[in-house]
Amino acid sequence: MGDVKGFLKVKREPAPYRPVCERVKDFNEVTVLRKDEKSREQSSRCMDCGVPFCHWGCPLGNYIPEWNDLIFRGQWKKAIDVLSATNNLPEITGRICPALCEFACVLGINDDPVTIREDELDIIEYAFKQGWIKPNPPKKRTGKKIAVIGSGPAGLACADQLNKAGHNVTVFERDDKAGGILRYGIPNFKLDKAVLDRRIKIWKKEGIVFKMSVDVGEGYKVSKLKKDFDAIVLAGGSRVPRDLKIPGRELYGIHFAMDYLVQSNKRLAGENIHFSKLIDAKNKKVVVIGGGDTGADCVGTAHRQGASCVVQIELLPQPPECRTKDFPWPKYPMLLKTSTSHQEGGDRHWSVSTKKFTGGDGRVQKLSCVKVEIGRDDKGCMMIKDVPGSGFEIEADLVILALGFMHPEKGLISGLGVELDPRGNVKTDEHYLASVKDVFAAGDMRRGQSLIVWAISEGRRAAHSIDKYLMGSTRLPVL
User: Fold this and answer.
1) Which of 42, 51, 27 is nearest to 329 (CA)?
2) Helix, strand, or coil (residue 226)
3) CATH class as words, domain 6-129
4) How much is the pLDDT for 380?
5) Residues near 208 by beta carbon (within 8 Å), at least 6 away in sequence
6) What is the CATH number of domain 145-239+407-471?
7) 312-331 per-position pLDDT tens digit
8) Do domains 145-239+407-471 and 243-403 have the same CATH topology?
9) Model confidence at 256, in pLDDT bands (50, 70, 90)?
10) CATH of the domain spanning 243-403
């Protein structure tokens, strides 16, 4: 490393955020990019580890110590080359990845880990600023045609890799713009959609064809898909939300998180929503059920829409702030996460079970809840018990269900006749090949609801297998 004692001289300093009083008034990104000199200073904290476990923690196997060293030395051009070797969307992961690598950082054993995610973002944004990220279409085409169904992170990464191999790639998306959950499920204050458009514009110039507003299996028949393409990649994500089927669920004002976030993003993009379908938190008492990242995104969106108050409740107990023996280094720990949305206001409550919704005139007005205790039975299985006498109510005009997702939608996969696993995901072999000839699957549609970095990894791995399947060999990396 450039400075072997850097971690002793410099303390961790993450990228700054815009002031709360300013950022809650708009949907612009909350993170402020660091100065180049600050990036070099922070990268100096990366140690000369005997075994850099950040590689192990990252599903992409990013060359983290290598590009940290290059940042420190000011060799930004080499740094972007190394970063791009393993990541098709570093400008996205640098913004919204939960940074599994940082929790596996060796320095994190007895100090704060390296700011790996911010370092990654600094590299790619520096490269764009210098004009180094340019279209680079393949010099030769194989003549093979591949359809990628779904334009989320798995589909985009897979399409990029297959295009690099010289195949003719067409990405199908039923929405009117590409990006999947990146465009419609992630709020603009975390990911400005101009960042996504910038990358897609490059891919189009490199030869990837994007067909928007095409619902494969409905408007575009499965028979035509099989006839027109040599291989099909299912990358439609896990889009069936987990519901909360309790009394009062039918009341107006109770919505799934993704419906809320998608509509918010479409409104910001200029789409007009009929007032009868509008989901807006302005002047409303908002309750978000679910304590994960999606729930936090709903909290931040509600703040910006002018909610009168926001409450987030979670069934599980409050996580610890530090590692416990259940999650020793370098495992990714279950820790209390306070996002930028939580910093902006609202209340959070743990160990809360919602028993019913009540209302008037068909609209939700209250949640009836109880406190719960989590335990284990004789077999070690989790048991959730209501605490006697702990019942209480929460007033609400708008309830958002952020309870995760169950499995992919069944339309297209039923039409193709692919086999599913016990959880309802597309079943594949170790080469991402489904039970139907020439059909592959990647991302959440195959592994279930997961993280963006896993989706990109899935897309890259699937592309490696598809190229080898079609050509007999491949030069694409496994990761």
Assistant:
1) 51
2) helix
3) mainly alpha
4) 82
5) 159, 160, 163, 169, 170, 171
6) 3.50.50.60
7) 999 999 999 999 998 999 99
8) yes
9) very high
10) 3.50.50.60
